[in-house]
């Protein structure tokens, strides 16, 4: 029987693939534009909603999105609401227009860790 020799290029290729797999596995799960680590916690779902609302209201100035309870039960879905007797979202800018208040509803899919629905001041955003 003849011996098979491993070429240096083959070792390098295997090492490169293993290194890339390690880098991919260690990447931050909550990096912008990527879903958060699953299973999704209630706090992580709230932060996703806060980020989506803040991005949408950025033309209004600085948005203050107060914490609100999850009304969706967790697990497969989360629902946060800023309306009625709950604290509203406040925006303010430096242009002297003062503060304004906004109502919002936000749904997060617990299975894929993404905002699945967003409504601000009665207007459906997603």
List the SSEs and their pairings.
Elements: H1 8-26, H2 42-56, E1 62-64, E2 77-82, E3 89-92, E4 100-102, E5 104-109, E6 114-120, E7 123-124
Antiparallel strand pairs: 1-3, 2-5, 3-4, 5-6, 6-7
Can you describe this structure?
The longest helix has 19 residues, at 8-26. With 126 residues, the protein is an alpha+beta fold. The strands form 2 sheets. Strands 2-5-6-7 form a 4-stranded antiparallel beta sheet. Strands 1-3-4 form a 3-stranded antiparallel beta sheet, with no helix packed on it. It has 2 helices and 7 strands, in the order ααβββββββ. It has helices at 8-26, 42-56; strands spanning 62-64, 77-82, 89-92, 100-102, 104-109, 114-120, 123-124. It has a domain at 37-124. Residues 22-33 have low confidence and may be disordered. A hairpin with a 7-residue loop joins β3 (89-92) and β4 (100-102). It is elongated.
Please give a quick description of this structure.
This protein is α+β, with helices and mostly antiparallel strands and 126 residues long. Helices cover 27% and strands 25% of the residues.
Strand content: 15-25%
* End-to-end Cα distance: 65 Å
- In the predicted model, the low-confidence regions spanning at least 5 consecutive residues are 22-33
Helices, by number, come to 2
User: Helical amount among residues, as a percent range?
Assistant: 25-40%
Order of helices and strands: HHEEEEEEE
**What order do the strands of the largest sheet run in, or round the barrel if closed?**
2-5-6-7
* Dominant shape: elongated
* Derived structural class: alpha+beta
Number of strands: 7
